[in-house]
């Protein structure tokens, strides 16, 4: 039996480790834990390089701190999935938030689950997302659909902002979407780090945002694909 490799990402390390231990008691699940999104970045990349990819990330809705409605986490999810397309992200939340849930589903998350749900329910979700299912509570569905409709209406504005970028700035933005840092972008595009820094600053300015994560989140909502 092939085991489902799961990584639990939560700022409360004791919670993450306890949940990973409970999941590993199942014969078809192998789980580990880490204390934050930045650490998860390294583990996702390490698993990819080792040719033993993770299948499911259970990530705390507040893993990025007090960001507005999951903006930073949405960008992080996009970067994870760009590195491992078969990775399925499920958000663990203390309370329902239709706006954040819609944003994270748009970024590629496959589910939103209450932290106080039963282990049986969580295992159902873990196994379900591997079968390409999407899981969220019925009580959250109406609000999420309303938010997704609103996001669609705003998408044209995001697309207009992206269209203001030069071809080179768009290339840099796509590299940012793929989770590449300044040095990696410079090597990929055969540019100096200083030139890449200038392009990144121009991208932020034209998109009207103040951080790379916010730029990535906006670009994803505009439908910009990550660099191959």
UniProtKB/TrEMBL annotation:
A GO MF annotation of the entry reads: DNA binding
Transcription listed as a keyword: yes
Tell me which domain of life the UniProt entry assigns to the organism this sequence originates from: Bacteria
Swiss-Prot/TrEMBL keywords: DNA-binding, Phosphoprotein, Transcription, Transcription regulation
Keyword DNA-binding carried by entry: yes
Q: Report the InterPro entries cross-referenced here.
A: CheY-like_superfamily (IPR011006), Sig_transdc_resp-reg_C-effctor (IPR016032), Sig_transdc_resp-reg_receiver (IPR001789), Tscrpt_reg_LuxR_C (IPR000792), WH-like_DNA-bd_sf (IPR036388)
Q: Which residues form the HTH luxR-type domain?
A: 158-223
Positions of the Response regulatory domain: 5-130
GO biological process, alphabetically ordered: phosphorelay signal transduction system; regulation of DNA-templated transcription
SUPFAM superfamilies per record: C-terminal effector domain of the bipartite response regulators (SSF46894), CheY-like (SSF52172)
- Residues carrying 4-aspartylphosphate: 60
Pfam families xref list: GerE, Response_reg
Database matches in PANTHER family: DNA-BINDING TRANSCRIPTIONAL ACTIVATOR DEVR_DOSR
Name of the protein: Response regulator
**Which species does this protein come from?**
Streptomyces alkaliphilus
